[in-house]
Amino acid sequence: MKRKLNAQDVPEEVQTSQKALSQFQSLGLDPRILQGIAKEAFSEPTPIQAKAIPLALEGKDILARSKTGSGKTAAYILPILQSTLKRKANSPSKKCTSALILVPTRELAGQVTKAITALAALCSQDIKVENVTRNEDEKVQRARLAALPDIVVATPSRASSHVNSSALSLNDLAHLVIDEADLVLSYGHDADLQNISKAMPKGVQTFLISATLNTEIESLKGLFCQDPVAVEMDEEEKDSGSVKQYVVKVAEEEKFLLAYAIFKLKLIRGKAIIFVGDIDRSYRLKLFLEQFGIKSCVLNSELPVNSRIHVVEEFNKGIYDIIIASDEHEVLGDEGKKDEEKKHGKGKGRGTKEDKTADTAESPVQPAKKRQKNSKTSTKKDYGVARGIDFRNVSCVLNFDLPTTSKSYTHRIGRTARAGKTGMALSFVIPANLYHKHKPTTFPTTKHDEEVLAKIEKSQAKKGLTVKPYHFDMKKLDGFRYRMVDALRAVTSMAVKNARIRELRQELIKSEKLKRHFEENPEELQHLRHDGELRSARIQHHLKHVPDYLLPGGAGKKPEDVGFVAFAKDERQGNRIRKARMANRGKGRGKKVLGRKGNPLQTFKGKGK
Questions:
Q1: % of the chain exceeding 90 in pLDDT
Q2: CATH code, domain with 276
Q3: How far is CA 240 from the centre of its chain?
Q4: Domain housing 197
Q5: What family is this (predicted)?
Q6: What per-residue confidence (pLDDT) applies to 515?
Q7: Residue 437's pLDDT is what?
Q8: What is the DSSP letter of 132?
Q9: What is the Cα–Cα distance from 573 to 606, expressed in whole angstroms?
Q10: pLDDT per residue over 239-272, tens digit each?
Q11: 117 shares its domain with 130
Q12: Residues 280, 233 within the same domain
């Protein structure tokens, strides 16, 4: 009986299905790869794997549309491993980089590298993989690439940089993968892709993996592919019906009230991802929940990449239950660009990096001057929460702040109900007449929540899905309101700023000084926690306890009458300083302090002439 580490790193017995192995064997894979598949306990090929792997083994270019969590990573890894082993068997003395995998974010690069290492565990002596997205010295990365690893995983900007410096040679490249291709383009990597295409030899097999097949992907197809085969998974759209979608229309401050009640009363079981609009908002919500003893961790682009990867890994293991993710690098898509043109006029945007990079994604072929200008923004947008990151076993996605487009909404709710499981998406919407009624909790993008909700409902209706209203009985939460108000008052702007600085300082220490130590001692990483209290806001310990009479079921109950309770402190505890003063006064020591009602004429002492 085989044993495998589960999500909590505890060995457990795993029964490998012979039927599943026979299905992978029918694909013509090497026995060592099949053993790696058995070690990972894959049940059977997913639909995209069953369709794409045979085509890839025939050497055809593939243009695949598949959502995250459908097994698309293994769909291109397995053919690349098979081809690499076959090449090495024919010419064992030749060393070269034969596969380049481009991903939009460092987090996704780490996940892909981990998947390759796991599937190639029994042929690790023959296949070497390097992830060059890590925050290392350039000389260290050049040394890694000088060893000519078989597979290189990189972001387009990092790969383009190494190609320009001749550290990465693409002369013998046989496979090119662009994972989350639409996201790569929206992040403004078009100039980097153009540079890589010039350095590639002809006849390279290309995999373009994307969640959508739009005009931008078509332009990318013309740049890299030769008569590609399109693999679209129509049944996957129907499978997304396992996500139950609800919307709650509330006032601005009631968002915090509902979040407090939902997690304190455990109305949501399992793990949850809370999406907020920006980084400040994520820390404000974390500090607010801390007031009630609700632990959560923050995930945003400001944190070091090592910390972000570790947060995701610990969340997937079940160590954390709540992640507050800021979606500040939201992918707008065509809908977002049209909205901005309507509001500000054609060619004008909000002035943010998101809009600038989205505009540059229209075509990967641009004049040299324009590409140089856009390349500055591409290196800064190396992060994304709603797409790319592999969150596992997420029960609920809570849109605390509604995204600005229906496309971004679809990507967010795609974090749950994956691999055949069910999930729930709950969104808070601010009605237009309630916007800016509570200034401390106002967020700018919520002004257009109702307009965005209409577009979301329309886009989901096209897929045969509905977004249902969820009616909370807010009267039953009246007992929680005064506690919510107290907690919000404690979370001031200065508290948020200090929390942000403190968390960043802590994560930098963990990420930089201990990075090499943890590479040598990976088991010690589990002792690092990211959901600890920041304690930058005023602590109110009484808020952590919820009396029974405040619960919705007992809202009408009155606390039990226990008679008169004096305000004096417990005599057993006492007050040491007060007792000492009383003892000294009894002995005639200490200062005699006049009370407010004392008569100064009676105590006045003076000497006449």
A1: 36
A2: 3.40.50.300
A3: 20
A4: 2-237
A5: Belongs to the DEAD box helicase family. DDX56/DBP9 subfamily.
A6: 64
A7: 93
A8: T
A9: 45
A10: 444 789 999 999 999 999 999 999 998 898 899 9
A11: yes
A12: no
